[in-house]
């Protein structure tokens, strides 16, 4: 097998990993949203930042490893990597992480509210 074909297999593997990694990053964002309440405009802003970061990752993959040439196997590798992650790991990862961290965040929220309540009390009038 020629060096060029081996390099293309390597790029395809990198694209699979980057596609799965981008989906993992979005799952972390989804977990963060489930644990901490967000307003609509914050969710929209987070999505814009995510997609800007995803575009930068895609561009850097193309620019660094393929001299900026768009190859269909790289695009398909990222798509297949993301779909594979979503069909295998995503649901379990999000569910387990939210289940594990929800009690911790509830405890933190209660402590925060108790401290806020203590400092918010007004001195009693005589």
Task: Describe the protein in words.
The protein has 126 residues and is an all-alpha fold. The chain has 3 helices and no strands. The protein has helices at residues 3-35, 40-66, 72-120. α1 packs antiparallel against α2 (40-66) and α1 (3-35) packs parallel to α3 (72-120). It is elongated. The N and C termini lie far apart (91 Å). The model has no long low-confidence stretch (mean pLDDT 87).
Low-confidence runs (pLDDT<50, min 5 residues)?
none
The proportion of strand residues reads under 5%
> Level of helix content?
over 70%
Q: Based on DSSP secondary structure assignment, what is the total number of beta strands?
A: 0
Number of helices: 3
Shape: elongated
Order of helices and strands: HHH
Q: In whole angstroms, how far apart are the ends?
A: 91 Å
Largest sheet: none
Radius of gyration: 22 Å
Q: Provide mean pLDDT, rounded.
A: 87
- Content-based structural category: mainly alpha
Keywords: Membrane, Transmembrane, Transmembrane helix
Pfam family, one: Spore_YabQ
Transmembrane segments: 6-28, 48-66, 72-105
Protein name: Spore cortex biosynthesis protein YabQ
């Amino acid at each position: 097998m020629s060096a060029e074909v081996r390099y293309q297999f390597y790029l395809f593997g990198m694209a699979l990993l980057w596609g799965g990694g981008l989906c993992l990053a979005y799952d972390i964002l989804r977990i963060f949203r489930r644990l901490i309440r967000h307003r609509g405009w914050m969710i929209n802003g987070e999505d814009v930042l995510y997609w800007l970061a995803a575009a930068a990752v895609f561009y850097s993959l193309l620019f660094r490893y393929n001299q900026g040439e768009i190859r269909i196997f790289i695009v398909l590798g990222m798509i297949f990597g993301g779909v594979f992650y979503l069909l295998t790991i995503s649901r379990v990862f999000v569910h387990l992480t939210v289940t594990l961290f929800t009690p911790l965040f509830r405890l933190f929220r209660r402590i925060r509210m108790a401290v806020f309540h203590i400092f918010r009390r007004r001195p009693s009038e005589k």
